[in-house]
Amino acid sequence: MTLIALNADVLVTMDAQRREIKGGALVADGPALLWVGATAELPAQYRRMADEGQARVLDMRGKVVTPGLVNTHHHMYQSLTRAVPAAQDAELFSWLQNLYMLWSHLTPEMIHVSTQTAMAELMLSGCTTTSDHLYLFPNGSRLDDSIAAAQQMGMRFHAARGSMSLGRSKGGLPPDVVVEEEEAILRDSLRLIQQYHDGSRHSMLRVVLAPCSPFSVTRDLMRESAVLARAHGVSLHTHLAENDNDVAFSREKFGLTPAQYAEDLGWVGRDVWHAHCVKLDPEGIALFARTGTGVAHCPCSNMRLASGIAPIRGMRDAGVPVALGVDGSASNDGAHMLGEARQAMLLQRVGYGPAAMSAREALEIATLGGARVLNRDDIGALAPGMSADFVAFDMEAVGYAGAGHDPVAALVFCTPANVSSSVINGRVVVEDGRLLTADLPVVLGQHRRLARSLFERAAGQ
Ligand SMILES: [Zn+2]
After folding, report:
1. CATH T-level topology, domain 2-67+379-434
2. pLDDT tens per residue, range 389-413
3. Which residue in 259, 306, 308, 351 has its CB near the most CB atoms, within 10 A?
4. pTM
């Protein structure tokens, strides 16, 4: 059915001219946008359809409408392990060691329900496309468990098949119980690509190959994954240069900086994005810019683990594609996409001064930046032919009181709000602030029960 949104206070297009249309309107048919402009200029045939009840009409009066936000880094299963006391005050490596054993008790049901929960939270915060990096598969868990959750929730999904193969006994960081054999990883990766990957325009599901990090897999697996991904046209994703220890590990084990290591492995290009890159050096920034290699910036997680301030200003000036990631819920216990855009802006200012990032640049990174890093040209902007992914924020809410001078900037400067409505692939998934694709109280009840049960299993081991 045709969907017509009318009368938005401002419609932020993120199109080539970065138009912000007062009294904005758009028309969607199925997964794609047909028309975007001012309500006063709505073509007669659409006006007639709206008047005659042949289209679903969304009245956006009092709202700012933006392209759906894009989250490029997450570990959704970690929603079960928020605010774990033993991991509250640690840096990355000891934080991981405190959590690995707990995660070894995850079940397929836990993966499924935590993914639904994490997606609900993201959708309500303005996110319409997300990636999830699942890199441990205990007790029969599979990437299929999170893919099924995404399909139920109606989110556009880049499912990253993570992996760990370098256990402690082989000099890696994770305990042996959570790692897999490399042959099995590659076999399952191929199965997932063949079974699920959809490379078409407006695709709702793409598979990504994502060995977890340089300190948890071998060079061979990084190389083989890249070969497999490129043979099938899927993207590559991992963690890189997250903090000083991460860089020290790379220099000690490989004799290379993280960026040199990535280049050596063939892990650069438009089809690759790396999470964090807090410690990417100037040569690394130049390499990423030259090759179109993407960065998922995760400001809350970087602050939570005291990893540092990623040089996003320098990356953007050099032309590195930068997107946002909320990161896993165990290192950013609040996964709010609009909130992440706000923290990205604030953290760059702490590092590089008050003009280091504007509100509009933060919004651009959260939309167009995400699309580019995921190697897509059909999301991140509202224009004819783009995917019908858009969200609306209610400017009459108390958090925006007095911010009518610049409602677009207010989205990033003011307390992060939840959306009043969200449309993904032409389907209304949030209406009047309520999620339509899941019975949220039921999902949250299951999630509470499973989070308790995960801790009981770990305690009884
Ligand atoms: Zn991560």
Report:
1. Urease, subunit C; domain 1 (2.30.40)
2. 999 999 999 999 999 999 999 999 9
3. 259
4. 0.97
